[in-house]
Write a structure and sequence with these properties.
Distance between the termini: 27 Å
Helix content: 10-25%
Radius of gyration: 30 Å
Number of helices: 8
Length: 418
C-alpha cells in the first residue's frame, strides 16, 4: 500500500468548514489506487484510468435509420410525386450496393449500409407500391433518415475521460467503438470497524445495556455502492491497546481505515489515544450537523477516518466527507452531487458557519412543483429518519434561517450513493 506522511491532514484551526476540508483532501492526498486492465463486462462501476478514444467512426458507415427506400435526392422532382423502379435490396449486415444510373431506388432496412450514391431514405409508410415500382411523395429533405458515418463519435474522438466512474452506457459506447477491455483504477481496499462495549452483532441476544450494531452494516453497504472493496473487521471493544493493535494490523493491507463511534472527547472515547499511539490524529471538528466529531489522520501511512457513533451522523459524514476522500484516493473525478431546488414547508433556525443537513420528504403540489416536508424529529440516532425520508436538505454555512416558501436544495438519498 502507498504510504502517507503523518502530518498530511495537519490543520491549525479550531473548526473547519466542509468546503475547507474537501479542499485539503484534494490538495494534500495523492491517488493511491493503481491501474489494471479489465474486460468490458467487468468495467461497469470502475474508475477510468485514462482517456479512451474511438478506434473507428461510430457508426462506421452511412446507414439507414428506418425501413424504407434509399434514393439519390437529385433524382427527385421538387414538388411532384416521383415514380421509380426498385433495383435492389440491402439488409443490415450485407455489403453495400452501387446504384445504377438514372432515377431508381433500393429497398433498405434499418441499420443497413447506404448504397453508393444514395443520400436519402423514404420511410416505407410514406411510399406507395405500384406494380414492380414505387411512388414517392414530394417534399422530403436531402439526407432524411440517413445516419452519417462518425455522426455519433468520429474516429479518434474521446468517449471516456480519465477519472470517470464508468456506467453501463460508457461500457456500451466502448464496445461499439471496438474496445474489448479498459484500463481502470484498482478498487480501494477499506477496512471498517465499529467501536464500543455496548455493541452486539445483529441477531445476538442483547445483554443489559447493549444495542445491535447497525452502523457497520450501513457503512459497508454504502462503501460497496461507492465501488470500494470492503473488509468488515467487526466490533472493537473500548480498550486502547486492542484498538491500536487492530488498526495497525489493518493499515498494512488497506488503503483506508474507517471506524464509527468513540471519536469524541469523553472518558470512554478511546479512538483518539489509540490512533495517536500508532500514528497521528487531528480532530477536524467539522462545521457540520449532524456529524461534527469527525476524526481524520494517518495510521502507519494509511489514511484513517473516525466517524461519529450516531447512525445519521455516520451516514451524513460518510457521504459528504468520506465519499470525496475515496474519490481522491481512487483517482475518480467526483462532481458535486445534483441537488434539487424545492420549496420548504417548514421554518428552521441554525447557526452561521455550520452546514446542516435536514431530513426531508418530497411531495408534488398542485402547480407541479416539489415541496420539502421536514421529518418530525431531529435526533442523530433516529434510523427511521433516514428510512422515512427522501433525502437531505442542505442548509449552507451562511444560512441562519429558513421560512416556509423559501427555496432550498435537497439531495435525494439515491443521488448521494449512486
Amino acid at each position: 500500500m502507498a504510504q502517507l506522511t503523518d502530518d498530511c491532514f495537519a490543520f491549525g484551526g479550531r473548526l473547519m468548514s466542509v468546503d475547507d476540508a474537501l479542499a485539503l483532501i484534494a490538495e494534500r492526498l495523492p491517488v493511491l489506487a493503481g491501474i489494471e486492465t479489465v474486460p468490458l463486462h467487468e468495467a461497469d462501476g470502475r474508475v477510468a484510468a485514462e482517456d479512451v478514444t474511438a478506434g473507428i467512426d461510430l457508426p462506421p458507415f452511412d446507414n439507414s435509420a428506418v425501413d424504407g427506400y434509399a434514393v439519390r435526392h437529385a433524382d427527385l422532382a421538387p414538388s411532384a410525386e416521383m415514380r421509380m423502379i426498385v433495383e435492389g435490396r440491402v439488409a443490415a449486415g450485407q455489403a453495400g450496393l452501387t446504384m445504377a444510373g438514372g432515377p431508381s431506388a433500393v429497398r433498405i432496412f434499418t441499420g443497413a449500409r447506404m448504397p453508393d450514391g444514395a443520400d436519402t431514405v423514404f420511410m416505407q409508410e410514406d411510399v406507395t407500391l405500384e406494380g414492380t415500382g414505387i411512388v414517392l411523395p414530394p417534399g422530403l429533405k436531402r439526407g432524411a433518415n440517413r445516419r452519417l458515418a462518425g455522426e455519433d463519435v468520429p474516429k479518434g474522438g474521446t468517449i471516456v475521460t480519465a477519472g470517470r466512474r464508468l456506467s453501463p452506457q460508457d461500457v456500451a459506447l466502448a464496445a461499439a467503438t471496438g474496445r474489448s477491455s479498459l484500463a481502470v483504477r484498482r478498487r480501494l481496499k477499506v477496512a471498517v470497524f465499529s467501536t464500543g462495549d455496548e455493541l452486539a452483532e445483529p441477531g445476538a441476544v442483547l445483554a443489559p445495556g447493549a444495542i445491535h450494531d447497525s452502523n457497520r452494516v450501513m457503512l459497508v453497504a454504502l462503501l460497496k455502492r461507492l465501488g470500494a472493496e470492503v473488509s468488515d473487521l467487526g466490533i472493537l471493544r473500548d480498550d486502547r491497546a486492542v484498538l491500536a493493535a487492530h488498526l495497525a494490523e489493518a493499515a498494512s493491507a488497506h488503503d483506508l481505515l474507517l471506524t464509527s463511534g468513540g471519536v469524541s472527547t469523553g472518558e470512554e472515547d478511546h479512538v483518539k489515544p489509540a490512533v495517536e499511539s500508532v500514528g497521528s490524529l487531528v480532530f477536524w471538528r467539522l462545521g457540520i450537523k449532524p456529524g461534527r466529531p469527525v476524526a481524520m489522520g494517518v495510521v502507519r501511512g494509511t489514511p484513517f477516518v473516525g466517524l461519529p457513533g450516531n447512525p445519521v451522523a455516520a451516514y451524513v459524514t460518510l457521504l459528504f466527507v468520506v465519499r470525496p476522500l475515496l474519490a481522491r484516493l481512487g483517482g475518480e473525478r467526483l462532481d458535486a452531487p445534483l441537488a434539487i431546488p424545492v420549496r420548504s414547508t417548514f421554518a428552521y433556525r441554525k447557526k452561521a458557519g455550520r452546514r446542516e443537513f435536514v431530513r426531508v420528504s418530497l411531495r408534488r403540489v398542485a402547480d407541479g412543483g416539489l415541496e420539502a416536508v421536514k421529518f418530525p424529529r431531529d435526533g442523530a440516532g433516529l434510523l427511521t429518519s433516514l428510512t422515512g425520508s427522501d433525502g437531505l436538505a442542505a442548509l449552507h454555512d451562511e444560512v441562519t434561517a429558513i421560512e416556509p416558501g423559501d427555496t432550498i436544495e435537497v439531495y435525494p438519498h439515491v443521488v448521494l450513493y449512486r
